[in-house]
Amino acid sequence: WTPDEDFQLLLDAAVEYDARATRLGTKSSSRRAATSKLPPPLAIIVTGKGPQKRMFEDKINAMASTLTHVAFRTVWLEFADYPRALANADVGVSLHASSSGLDLPMKVCDMFGASLPVLALEYDVIRDELVDEGVNGVLFRDAGALADALERCFARPGAEAFTSTLKRGAEASGARTWEDNWRATAAPAFTVHAA
Asked: Which candidate in 34, 46, 114, 132 could, as Cys together with 87 as Cys, close a disulfide (CB 3.0–4.6 Å)?
């Protein structure tokens, strides 16, 4: 709930997902097609605290009555409960927009540690060093792309298989240790080669 987190993207993506689900539901009921699969409703749980929390809770409350396929909950979790909550989610969302362009969101590491695939706001460092598109997560640049990612994970044909693939990738990413990453990434930069 800080200025480095663009929660408006999440709210706009939720509205877009809800509109798409409503359109699909209307088409399905008008054709009475029993084989049409409607997008599942989403429960979006936002954790933490920070200076912008109240402002976004007010926005969430104002739009709640207009959403039929998306529900929001905001919660503060104790330290021990946070990894359990992550492990019970289907995907995680990182809205971190690095002000320096150089830092990585630790919440993504937390998500990978819980074998949770991540939908992450894209910037150079996260793309190059943390989230591998289609392997352990999906990157997005705007609310429409986040709505697409949610639809890809939950509503499109093959969504379950796609999300399972991401989960396996997130599990593999979570299994890498600090030492593994140091040896693969940083150590070569500090190695002195004798001439």
From this structure: 114
